[in-house]
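Final report, closing paragraph on structural work. Over the funding period we assembled a curated collection of sequence-structure pairs, and we close with a single example.
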Amino acid sequence: MKLYLIFLLSVILVQGLPIFEIPNDYDRYGNQCPLLPQYNIDCPLLCVNNLSQCPPTLAPHCSSGLQFCGDGTCQLSCDNIPNACLCNGNDNGYIPCAVGQKVNITHYNPQEKDSQIQSACAKSANIVDSVGVWGSFNTSKLWLECPVVVAEFTFREPMWIAVWCLSAFEVLLLASWHIYKIAREKRINKRADESTSYTVDEKINMNGNTEESERKGDLDIPSTSEASSLKDSEQLRFKGFHCDYFGLFAFGSVIITTLLFIIFLGCLVGDYYGKLNGGVLHVFLSSDASSKIFCAVWHISAAWFCLIMFTRHRIQNYFRIESFPHTSPFVQVERKEEELVFLEDGNRWLSKMKAIESRIIKKLGMDIVVQTCRVHVTSSNLRYFEYQCMRYVYNASRNRYEPYEFDLGSTNRKLHSWSDGTSTKEADYRQELLGLNIIPVYVPSIPWALVQEFSSFLYLYQMMCMWVWYYFQYYPMGLVQTFIIIISAGIRVFLRLRAEKRVKEMAEYVTGVNVIRDGEWKENISSANLIPGDVFEIQEHSQIPCDCVLLSGTVVVNESALTGEAMPIRKMTLPKDDNLYESDGSGKVNTLFAGTTVSQLIHGVEEERIYALVLRTGIVSEKGMLIHKILFPSSVSFIFDEHIKIAICILLVWGLVAFCLSLYMMGRGNITSWYYGVFVMSQIFSPLLPAAFTINQSVCSARLRTKKILCIDLPRINLSGKVRIFCFDKTGTLTKEGLEFFGSVAKSSKLTLRESDPLKMDRLMAMGIATCHAVTKVGDQFIGNPVDIESFNAMKWSLLPMTDLDYLDSLKPPGNPSELPVHIIRRCEFVHARASQSVAVLDSSDNRVHVFLKGSFERVKYLSTPDSVPKDYDEIAARYAQEGCYVLALAHRDIGELGVDISMSEVKSMTRDDLEVDCDFIGFVLFKNMLKEDTTDAISQLKTGAVRPVMITGDTALTGIFIARQCGMIEPDQKVLLGDTINGQIIWHDVDSGDQLDVDEVLQMEPGLDYEKRVELALTGRAFELMVTQNIMRPYLMHTRVFARMTPNNKVQCVQLHMEKGVTAMCGDGGNDCGALRAAHVGIALSESEASMVSPFSTSNRTIMQCVELLKQGRSALATSFANYKFLIFYGESMAFWELLMFYFTVIAPQPIWITIDGFITTTMTFAITQAKPADRLGPSRPTAKPLGIYTMISCLGVIFINFWFMVTSVVWLFQQDWFICNEFDASAIDSAQWWLLGDNYESEIISLVVLFQFFNSAAIVNFGSAFRQSWWRNYILVVFYCCFFIHTSFLILADPNPYSCIFRINCGTASVLHDTLGYPMPNWKIEPYNSPLGHNVLPKWFRWELWGFVLGNSIANIVWERIIVLYLMRNWAVKHKNNPEKPVFKL
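Its predicted structure, as stored:
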């Protein structure tokens, strides 16, 4: 398309333009143009044989004390001033007359300028006899015309000999190293092949197999149990390398050569500006020679830098000798990394491009992540290295490096057997294999972080463009853009270092602990020295340094740092039985996790210390796994990034075409045209484009921080703008943190009367609720399960100080002060596997022992005696659940009078099963989970914003359905079917009627398309697992609104299934939602705990209105990214067409115009665009994420087309003006390299004024669109900048000559011409004489107003196209005719 436009431009302007016709030849009517006058032309120096031959006007007349010198001037001293008439050659007998003669030529002909000037000068000096020209030395007078001697290098000068020697040395050195490296490695291979007859532990494994598989990196290390926990199915490839002095020297030469290239380019630039000793071009002789050398060095250095950049991860090992990994001091670890592309659109063309890119990346090995690790040796001669915080030890028996693991046993009794600790020798050995108990987080220094940031091809492109800008008299804008690029990089580095330092503070925790070593307690041992098998003392108000299991006492801990749950949790001593120990199962109540804080210690009888057994340390601990997820995330790419890659390729191809056109039009291929071509390329693909994206994301991140939303992954901000599905946890997310006690329903009232007043409750019910829990008190704070604390507080019983060691707790009922307390003499903690807890309570009033069993209503029904369970038990429990209640059941058993029917020892020694057997059901305990105040409004806004909300909860299905209805996820009149498993089959019931239904039949009978059906589904965790296993979940996924009783793994699976349908967000509290938060495209944790750091977003404001705010900001950021993308595309295309038009006329706009565009308009407008604030509410659509999408392409091509034709029309219009024809700019006699002299003409002026309006108007039109951002006029910064540029440019167009416009060489001219020819007052400000025969470029006043109307028409045309045609007509048409069956439409 662009090539076609260029072709049309050439056809239209082929007549009467400089390349095809002589300027100022004929006017519009066929008449020959009159020759224009030229004023103040300097005469050449007149050389004579004797000063007496000088005409009187040129005779030397020097003031007293001055001498007449050989250059024709008067000076105090003529030392070191040669005779100019000798032209630095042999003495020809001529001496100069005085200089300074100027003449005016009334009909100046540039084609005959030399003879015209000489004749006019002779006439002005009254020289009658003929004057010769240089070369004919037989006359008494001649005009000085020294032959032009182009300074050239022979390239045999000492400087160049040094360059050639250094280059040859480097080439020879690298070639020699390569040959030497191959030879050395072949010898190692040969020696290895021959070494099969002897056995060495580290060379041959137990089976006698040689290490051939390991040599040369052919060993693929599969994940061990620990490594797989860090990353599933991770495959590592190891290669060993030895250092070599020759290689070290060669590598040093590469570094020095790289620096020398930069120094060489710097010297060329410095010499061009005279910053090296000797003045301008003192070292590189001439502009032409310097330009050619710079061009050559630029290309060679660019190729060198690209090679260094491409091999940066492997280059150091290239200069080492490859050998066996198990004998080498360095190991190169290679890991294949598959990039995850978010929001793939199924576009075939894009898919093909992606496939081509993947093949190229695979061919070049760019899909392999490489890291070199130094190998260390333990005191026992075991070799190891550390990779991603994990220590890999060489296992000679298995012939490979792998993480080490200690098995402490799988049963509770086996773990207790380690209670005597380990020996110092064993501890040292284990520490050597596992490493210190810290998670070392490497945070680079600021200089090294900047080096890492700039180590990319994008920055290399920017750097090479800036070198050209610096060299070619455009250093002011080069400095501006360099500053912006550095600021952008600095922002990225700052955000990265801030996040890594935060992780480091969280990870590297060390404290002093007391440890059993060699059978005795060792005081104040560093926690960094703990190893699995150590037994250490738990200290109150300390942080747990590792994962451990409690061997004595009771500990109250705060696990909010890992789970996000603020309530403290009681941890009990590990029982001494043969049950399997499961840290995430039944053993969780006995397990202390690294990073949690000890709130209280409760000592048992005769327990001096409370101690724990170390299970896992460092990176394999629960905290370590969390840190690992943060430090080493999976590589992801947004569809926006995939499109941008192709867009950049298209821009570079177009830039190459424009480069070739520049080579032809600006000098027909001479060296100067190369610089113009690079200029065009660097502006078609602006170096500011990546910086603009970074600055936009940073602005949005700062805006999110003001809303108390922290972002640690900037690219996810744009991704949040495309969210279509939002998954929510229920408790603490949609609802308030805890459950509120709603009362009890006693069996004695036939389960019909709910009672919330503890004084009116059935006595057994009140006693059971008040005692059947694990609540304790630390200071003034109750510790325990939040539900238990809520029910205990509601019962208003008092927790009394301990008076007897047989009593675990003593409690007194409210009301009657004389009523005796009850004592808890046995407590069985709540276990998830049993879904119940129980206590044995001694009632002091009658000395009888009561057993209370509390748990889920399903479990209590199972454990209760059948006769005690009412027939309508399930219906009543379900009814309360449907009303949003959290339903627990309570059962009771009287086991007799203490000391008569049963003894204290018998109660304490009974098994749990014996204690809980034969309990009678006595009633339900009800709690309610209340919605947060703004949940309903947030869900409503999400639905209005075309986002589907989904609930994924661990609570019961009926409670989840009730909350979904209450908050508006499910509308009141919608039918809800609940799926659950019964006998291995999924059965569906209508939750309102209880009828069993066929879900497929119901969905099929429901009228309308899928998104119109008024049926919602809900699933239990068991049903979800079964449907996933049977691979039948996907057809029902978008009909399912509530996923209940979901485990953390279930949540991850559910989120991943939704991710197949569209961009999916997850919101939770950062506890058991960590996996889902990490897996989702966008995760936001309503927590600031350490666990929340796995989520890209976190907030301390625990309301889901933050999710709405995130989407608003994300949509705004994505729309703004596209606005900046379009603006810089418009900038590049307008700049390219502007430059090509100017190149066509061999004119260049004055430097202040360039500075205005690149230094002010582009930079300020790019920043101003980012200041657009998000819309007040979510709209029913999302911004596009495709830079090459049809909408974006039509918008861009339309604006580019309009701007291009207005630019062309302005030139055609100019050539229709009588006052312009015959006043065209003739650059045939001017050096095009001096571009700052080529702007004093009408052509440059008209094109520049038109394009100035296009630049700042382009920024305004991309700010249209209030669907995702606030109205354009509310971006006050952009409006102010726009008005400033509008007034500035309008003033330049309309104003008469004035000091301001003369700075820009617009509507100005030489002072004498303005006064004498045009009749303006004599300027009282300095104006550099105009470099054109006309002497000015002042437009006729009437034409200025027409031109102003013309550029306004250009602006209005763009506004109409973007605001009315694209944003209104085309968008409305697209909405009405959108019918793509491949894209799902979701039920909101």
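The two ends are 41 Å apart (CA to CA). The chain has a mean pLDDT of 82. We thank the funder for supporting this effort.
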